[in-house]
Design goal:
Layout lengths: L2 H5 L8 H16 L4 H7 L4 E10 L6 E10 L7 E8 L4 H17 L5 E8 L7 H14 L9 E5 L5 H15 L23 H7 L2 H8 L7 E5 L3 H12 L3 E7 L2 E4 L6 H11 L9 E3 L1 H5 L5 E4 L18 E3 L8 H9 L3 E3 L1 H4 L2 H15 L5 H26 L3 H20 L4
Parallel strand pairs: 3-4, 3-5, 6-7, 6-10, 10-11, 11-12
Antiparallel strand pairs: 1-2, 2-4, 7-8, 8-9
Helix pairs in contact: 2-4, 4-16, 5-6, 7-9, 7-14, 7-15, 14-15, 15-16
The structure holds nicotinamide-adenine-dinucleotide (NAD).
Length: about 425
């Protein structure tokens, strides 16, 4: 079967996001002369499970049926790995696209996993905690034969958290009759979670800053950093940037942002958000809009909120010299081209936010060994993995004369292709 002949049969996964992931993969596959048969195979997930299941509302008589998904893109690299998303618009196509991106992300940083993703189409903000627990336990039961520490290891994503992972782990363990911490990552510490998992994505993204700055001839000490999105990724990126001696001059969230040229008090801003759930009302700087934050005069811009915020419309006005993508997909393809033309370095999401899955990998290894590492070991190993992946991506970019996003994908896709060639076709 050729790549072309698979084109006609991907409608099972059709969605705007899947089309974009596919276009990206097709472009890079063609560029590197990827074998047609491997190309055709990797255009679609290997396994996809769709489940429909009921859960009881807190009013006992009210039962609602929802859809759940678990998609595994490639099983050749080891178990599959990827988050579980609860959102009102989750679809098979979206989950399939995210599973494919997880394959490349794991391969780029050299983790022994293929990509997976899961989701339940339900708005988590309208669920009480007991309702969310019932959804989680039933979803886990429905996909139970599909997951496992040697098969597929879920983790938190949008709308799910440590508590959700605790329920998933408990449901799985009750079913097999013994405790299996390694079935999920992103768990509470008390259940075999890993220290430094919460900080991992933000910290990992900022750990690439010194190498990027060196390339750009930019000084890290005192560099001005603007952070769009002040949740898990944005907050810990702010902490890590401050530790490096940078000046975090602006942060924002869904309620808008604050700007202070001589530096935001990151700890104080985090404490405000912990208490008030958003930056609304925080007076540690001048109020600015999210749009203004993106266009601020600064050295480093770190989008850490939602997809598609740097677009063809505003890319010409971005003043940062370096963009580090903490969020997934913050830069549109058109904006990417504009930033490249303007000489602004973009460290792409598949590399920049891989710190989360890297510490998830550490958590899985620790659970399998029942031996837990110190925070220093974890942070040190995270920095090492992120930076060696980054320097390999920089080498590919230099050798092939391409931007960092293309270089990262080339690295990831080549690694998966090599593994598939070595394993051959069964039977
Ligand atoms: P989060 O829910 O903790 O924080 C999201 C932040 O973005 C919040 O401050 C929220 O107010 C803000 N936000 C939401 N909509 C916004 C808007 N329209 N404009 C401005 N700000 C807005 O989520 P997170 O875990 O920090 O994830 C952020 C991004 O990073 C997502 O794209 C996610 O997919 C990606 N990511 C997260 C991890 C992780 O380990 N948490 C790993 C890889 C990628």
């Amino acid at each position: 079967m050729t790549a072309e002949s698979t084109t006609g049969s991907v409608y099972e996964f059709d969605s705007p996001m899947f089309r974009e992931a596919l276009a990206q993969f097709d472009r890079v596959g063609e560029m590197i002369g990827l074998d047609d048969n491997i190309h055709a195979r990797l255009r679609v997930p290997q396994r996809a499970m769709v489940v429909a299941f009921p859960f009881r509302h807190d009013v006992y008589r009210d039962v609602e049926t929802v859809f759940g998904y678990r998609v595994q893109h490639v099983l050749s690299m080891g178990p599959t790995k990827g988050g579980v998303r609860y959102a009102a618009d989750v679809s098979l196509g979206e989950v399939a696209a995210l599973a494919m991106l997880m394959t490349w992300k794991c391969a780029i940083v050299g983790l022994p996993f293929g990509g997976a993703k899961g989701g339940v189409r339900v708005d988590p903000t309208r669920l009480s905690s007991p309702e969310k627990q019932r959804v989680t336990r039933r979803y886990t039961s429905e996909i139970i034969n599909f997951i496992g520490p040697n098969k597929d290891i879920p983790a938190p994503d949008m709308g799910t958290d440590e508590q959700t992972m605790a329920w998933m782990m408990d449901t799985y363990s009750q079913n097999v009759g013994h405790t299996v911490p390694a079935v999920v990552t992103g768990k509470p510490l008390a259940l075999g979670g890993s220290t430094a998992r919460r900080e991992a994505t933000g910290r990992g993204a900022i750990s690439l800053l010194p190498t990027a700055a060196l390339r750009l001839g930019m000084t890290v000490e005192g560099a001005r950093v603007a952070i769009h999105g002040f949740g898990n990724v944005g907050q810990y990126a702010a902490v890590a940037a401050t530790e490096l001696g940078c000046r975090v001059i602006a942060v924002s969230d869904i309620s808008g942002g604050v700007h202070r040229e001589d530096g935001i008090d990151v700890e104080e801003a985090m404490a405000w958000v912990a208490e008030h759930r958003s930056l609304e009302g925080y007076e540690g700087g001048d109020r600015i809009t999210n749009e203004e934050l993106l266009e601020l005069e600064c050295e480093v811009l770190l989008p850490a909120a939602i997809a598609g915020v740097i677009t063809g419309e505003n890319a010409g006005r971005i003043k940062a010299r370096l963009v580090i993508e903490g969020a997934n997909g913050p830069t549109t393809l058109e904006a990417d081209r504009i930033l490249e033309e303007r000489g602004i370095m973009v460290v792409p999401d598949v590399l920049a936010n891989a710190g989360g899955v890297t510490v998830s990998y550490f958590e899985w290894v620790q659970d399998l060994q029942n031996y837990f590492w110190s925070e220093n070991q974890i942070v040190g190993r995270l920095r090492e993995i992120m930076n060696s992946a980054f320097s390999e991506v920089l080498d590919v970019a230099d050798q092939e004369g391409v931007g960092l996003r293309t270089a990262a994908l080339i690295k990831g896709i080549r690694r998966v292709a090599r593994a598939k060639v070595a394993r051959g076709v069964f039977p």
